[in-house]
């Protein structure tokens, strides 16, 4: 076959855009060969060339830019009939950029190769595996899942998007669909001060602050904030009410002590010796009616003592310690 004839036939085919019947003509190469990529899922897609034969198949090769590795066939994508090929496994390293190319095959005829533009893994549209939510009081604790599984590989989101990671968080109130948006920088965060007894649905869209990249929102997940008088509130309530009780008991105790010390009373043994030495105190007879150890409320307390026969003038006396009994 002479080259002039081939060129002529090609020109005719192009000009008339008509199906050619000669076996001698090359197959048309595939068109629109491009990556459709989300993080850790890099799919190569194409469309058939003009007027493909019914038995057309495709072959895919890839190349890593900047290495001296030449075009390498993708074993899973040799003589396939589909119009896509998963190149994730061959294009994961975000330090490189990649090319892929596809050609049509029919019998023992092959088309020319059709190549992609260069592909960077960082250009892949952003996605996360999801999030897990837990409720603490009226706070939702969110933990983003950054591990992406693809085939037999596990990829960490932050290994691919190393810088300027942001998470746009959508918080939808289920009852009226009112949606709040917040931006977080950490994969673990709290959404606080939510309404009690309310259902919220959360989804997250990853972002990169430095550039516009397509992104997919995670699936929505819903949780319900409980009633106010449950959980943490209950504990808080218990703490504050017992604090108030203690305060009241303390005041009551102080009052009782102040009233008691108008009567002579047996001081604790530690104080007894001290008081004896200072000869301010005349030991009274032990009272059979009230034992000091059985007193429910005992506390170290300073109280102004009333003027007494044995103790001239007004002075401060250290009274029996009294401790708070468990309620
Ligand atoms: C790749 O580089 C190595 C080392 O420089 C060299 O030996 C080898 O021939 C190169 N291969 C190709 C395909 O250029
Ligand atoms: C194409 O393949 C057939 C067998 O499948 C063979 O007989 C024929 O010679 C081949 N043609 C060319 C041009 O290689
Ligand atoms: C993972 O899958 C790729 C092909 O997708 C294969 O070449 C590789 O050997 C597999 N690795 C393991 C550890 O199974
Ligand atoms: C909220 O949105 C859902 C679907 O988007 C709709 O079915 C539902 O009626 C909406 N509820 C309210 C209260 O607007
Ligand atoms: C979320 O709140 C809990 C409890 O209030 C706290 O222990 C945790 O440190 C908070 N986490 C973050 C990321 O702020």
TrEMBL record:
Say if the entry is tagged with keyword Transmembrane helix.
yes
Which keywords, in A-to-Z order, does the entry hold? Membrane, Signal, Transmembrane, Transmembrane helix
Range of residues in the leader sequence: 1-22
GO cellular component terms listed in the entry, alphabetical order: plasma membrane
Q: Name one GO molecular function term.
A: cytokine receptor activity
Q: Which top-rank group of organisms is this from?
A: Eukaryota
**Residue ranges of the Fibronectin type-III domain?**
29-124
PANTHER family per UniProt: INTERFERON/INTERLEUKIN RECEPTOR, INTERLEUKIN-10 RECEPTOR SUBUNIT ALPHA
Protein's recorded name: Fibronectin type-III domain-containing protein
Give the species this sequence originates from.
Amazona collaria (yellow-billed parrot)
